[in-house]
Amino acid sequence: MASERKPAQDLKFVRVALPWLLAVAVFVVYAVTLNRWVSFSNLQPVANVAGYNWIPEIIAHIHSLAGFPVIGATEKEIGGSIFERMKNIALLRNALSAVGLDTPIHIFGSLDTITTLLYFVSGADIFDGLTWLRYAY
Predict the structure, then answer these.
(1) For labelling alongside 93, which of 37, 41, 70, 122 has CA 20 to 30 A away?
(2) Is 120 within 8 Å of 126 (Cβ atoms)?
């Protein structure tokens, strides 16, 4: 009877040691599969190759957007940071103005009080989002 395990010992392993073992195993898998040629210095060329930067392609065919009453894009599609989003909105607005189009730019998913002002200054016109839903309402 002395060799029987007590339930408290099993629970201690499951509650204390098992999460750490799983975390170490997941970290090892992450470290082994990590792509070493992507770094902060070459992130923009990697994004261009992967197709995540679609603004230059849109600007190259800006004249084909003449038939649309509104041009819309989600906030996450425009860029990874606020400054990159502002730059891409400004590029899109300048390209539309160069062709003679005064088409409004709609930013989906952006209704934050700070980003709305920043995106408006960059050239966006219409905003919507569910930010209000995130704050205790």
Answers:
(1) 41
(2) no
Edge to edge, the sheet with strand 71-74 lists: 71-74, 105-108, 126-128
Angle at 93 between CA 91 and CA 98, to 5 degrees: 95
Query: When comparing pLDDT for 32 and 39, which is higher?
Result: 32
Q: Which amino acid is at 91?
A: L
Residues 6+ apart with CB under 8 A from 68: 103
pLDDT at position 106 over 90: yes
Residue pointed to by tokens 């425009």 = 78
How many other CB atoms are there within 10 angstroms of residue 2's CB atom?
3
Distance, in Å, from the CA atom of 83 to the CA atom of 19, rounded to the nearest integer, reads 39
Confidence at residue 14, expressed as pLDDT on a 0 to 100 scale: 78
CA dihedral (110, 59, 121, 45) positive or negative: positive
